[in-house]
Each structure stands twice: as C-alpha cells, then as structure tokens.
Design a protein that fits this description.
Elements (H helix, E strand, L loop, with lengths): L2 H4 L19 E5 L9 H16 L3 E8 L4 E2 L3 E5 L15 H10 L4 E4 L4 H13 L3 E4 L4 H25 L4 E4 L2 H9 L5 E3 L18 H5 L6 E6 L8 H11 L3 E8 L3 E4 L2 E5 L4 H9 L3 E4 L8 H8 L4 E4 L4 H4 L5 E4 L4 H12 L3 H13 L3 H16 L14
Parallel strand pairs: 1-2, 1-5, 2-4, 5-6, 6-7, 7-8, 9-10, 9-13, 10-12, 13-14, 14-15
Antiparallel strand pairs: 3-4, 11-12
Helix pairs in contact: 3-4, 8-12, 10-13
Length: 398
C-alpha cells in the first residue's frame, strides 16, 4: 500500500467483530449506475440488500433511474429518467428537484451514493438538509477515465472535481488501495478502503458443466479462455480478441456480456449477458482460464467471481487487478499489449493450472460478502453513533 493510503481511515485495518447493525434505521442507496445488464455495482447493491435483510433490522432501499416511477423486486425504487443513447440500458436523471423530493420522502437515516455525477450532488443536498450522514462509494475511477481520454489536463481537472465533490461527504469508500491512493493524491482525506466480496456458494468449481463446450460448438480439446462483463471500451476486449488470434489453435475465447449469442470468429464466441449467478458460474467453472485486459478496474469483482469458480486468471497489471492477481493465482501482462498477453497465457498453460485454480478458490473464500458487509456495518455504526452492544435487537440468519 502506498504512502498516501497509509494515512487513510484507521477503521480499514480493524473491522468490527459483530455481524449486526443499528435496528430501526433506514439506509438508502442511490446511484445512476444501475441497469439491467450492469455489473459490479448492481451486484454489490443486491447482495447488500439480501445480507441486511438476513442479518439486521436495518430498512434498506435502493433508488435508481428507470423507465417510470415504480418499484421493483428487492425494494428497488425507480425514478423516471430517459435512456442514455447507446448506453447499454443506463439512464440519466434530468428532473433534479423531483429526485431530491423522492429521496427526501424516503426519510433516510443514512445515504450512500454509488456514482460521482450529478446524482451525488443532489443526494448531498438532501443529506445536509435532513442532517443525516452521507457516504460515497467510489466504484468509478473518474480520474483515470479522464486521464485516458484527455491526458494530464483531464487528470488534473477530474482530481479537482472529485476533491470538491467528496469533500462534502462524511466518508468516502474505496474498493481497493489503488483507488484509495488516487483519491488521497487528489486531496480527498476522508477515505477508507472497503473491499467487495463474492458468493462462494453459487460461484463454485462444482458448477462445471461437462456438456457446455458441445452445446456451444466448441471443440472438447480447446483451451477455453473466458471473459465476462460489460464489453465497453475500458475493458479492452479488442486486446483479448487480438491475443487469441495470435495464439491460434487450440485456444478459444468466450466473451460473456453481449445481447445475443453469435460467433465473432472461428475461435471467438460471444454469449449473452448472464443475469443469473448460477448461469455465470456454469460458464466460468467450465472454462480453463479467465482473461481480463481492462486497465481501469476499481476492484475487479468478476475476477474474484472467476477465482471462486476455481479459475486461474490472466490480467493486466493495472488498477485494482494488480491487487487481486499475483503468481499464486495466475499471470499478469503489460496493459494494452496483446503480445505480452499471449506470453502470459503461454506461461499459465505451462504451469500446474489445477493447483493455481485451487489457490484462486482459496483467495476467493477469504473475501466473502459476509466479511465485507460486516466491516461496512461497522462504518455505518460509527457514522450513526450507534453502540454495538444491544445484540438482542439484531436478527441473525441462524
């Protein structure tokens, strides 16, 4: 961990020991980064909702953009927002006053914001008016994105913006040390590292389907590489395709995250986005290795999900992926370098992949959602100034 991260909130190092939370309080999560086929943020929010219901008496509501003002399963409430053109199902709120009023009517005791855009500013206004704590979860690395698009001037402008926005929050959560360091370097002082987790019961090597390759028309002897996630620019999917073309037979690349199944090349197959975790687990566990060329990951949840399925990982040495992937669980390569990716894949297949897969599974088991949310609840306690003593008020899973 860098020097900047060493000055971060000390609660990062000592998570609370109790699986509990303040009873009778209302937590509202609000974000515009929630779509039918979105990835890590949606997964985090829905997993958190289920965990809070099982382990606490905290009321939890998720407020996100939608086609209209209606409710959804899991206590998700939508506020009407237009769709973003070519945005993969994402929507952009434009009725700011209506959004503030909708959020205020929920009478939250604590607000958590999952994006750094105009929704965050509106939530901040509501929190200050109601005099309730507000938390930002930095799921998106805006500074890195601005730098990739606009170079050093973009980095500086984004850093100033982030410092101004997050300076108004009571706590800023970073899912990895790399994000925490970037925030600290931008001048954000109220940062704590809060890792995400993984469902190791659903995502497991036992989900392997020996018939998957035949179903997809992939040769049984193929060395099957897989990537799952949004097929957006920062994921660097063309680098994966270029690498598998250089590798040639018997390698085959499976891309999970499209709109419909189709063959992109003789050795590249595109599959639909997998909404159900058990279907994703079936695909991951039936592959030989997970490959990820993205260079802007703030955590890399899908990498952890692949590890849970017992897959070795080949990942770019960039962002938070460096924190998840080391030689014990896979190989790394220079970002934006398909030829170095080829060499990393070659190295992996010369090693004992079964042993690496077992190590990857153990790594995933150490990063459960239960551990992540137990730590998160402790942060909520401190913001709400609630003692952890009255355990009789807490409903446990059993």
């Amino acid at each position: 961990m860098g020097q900047a991260a060493a000055t971060l909130d000390q609660t990062t190092r000592s998570p609370p020991p109790l699986r509990a939370g303040p009873a009778g309080r209302h937590l509202v999560d609000v974000t515009m980064l929630f779509a039918p086929t979105s990835g890590g943020i949606r997964r985090y929010l829905l997993e958190k909702h289920g965990w809070l219901q099982q382990h606490t008496r905290i009321k939890h509501t998720i407020l996100v953009p939608g086609a209209d003002d209606t409710g959804l399963p899991y206590n998700v409430i939508r506020f009407a927002s237009p769709a973003l053109p070519m945005g993969g199902g994402y929507r952009v709120p434009i009725r700011m006053r209506a959004l503030r009023e909708r959020l205020a009517r929920l009478t939250p005791d604590l607000i958590e914001v999952g994006d750094p855009y105009h929704v965050a500013w509106q939530a901040l206004r509501v929190a200050r008016r109601r005099k309730v704590p507000i938390v930002a979860f930095c799921h998106s690395d805006v500074i890195a994105l601005a730098g990739s698009l606009l170079g050093a001037p973009g980095c500086r402008a984004a850093s100033r913006y982030i410092a101004r926005l997050y300076g108004g929050f009571d706590l800023v959560l970073a899912p990895s040390a790399s994000v925490a360091n970037r925030l600290a370097s931008a001048g954000v002082s109220n940062v704590a590292i809060q890792p995400l987790g993984v469902d190791t019961e659903t995502l497991t090597p036992r989900a392997r389907d020996p018939d998957l390759r035949a179903t997809l028309g992939i040769p049984a002897e193929a060395r099957l590489l897989v990537f799952a996630g949004r097929l957006s620019g920062e994921k660097r999917v063309p680098d994966l395709v270029a690498a598998v073309n250089l590798l040639g037979r018997p390698y085959h690349l499976l891309l999970v995250g499209g709109r419909k199944r189709r063959t992109l090349a003789p050795n590249v197959t595109l599959l639909e986005y997998q909404l159900e975790q058990h279907q994703l687990a079936r695909i991951l566990a039936s592959s030989d290795a997970f490959v990820h060329a993205g260079d802007q990951e703030t955590f890399g949840l899908v990498v952890l999900e692949a590890m849970a399925c017992g897959l070795p990982v080949v990942a770019a040495r960039a962002g938070a992926l460096e924190e998840l992937v080391d030689p014990s669980v896979g190989e790394t390569f220079r970002p934006r370098d398909p030829r170095d990716l080829v060499l990393a894949v070659d190295r992996l297949f010369e090693r004992d992949r079964a042993a690496i897969g077992r190590a990857a599974r153990r790594r995933a088991e150490s990063l459960s959602w239960d551990a992540a949310f137990t730590q998160l609840i402790g942060r909520y306690w401190r913001l709400l100034a609630v003692s952890s003593a009255p355990l009789r008020e807490i409903r446990h899973a059993g």
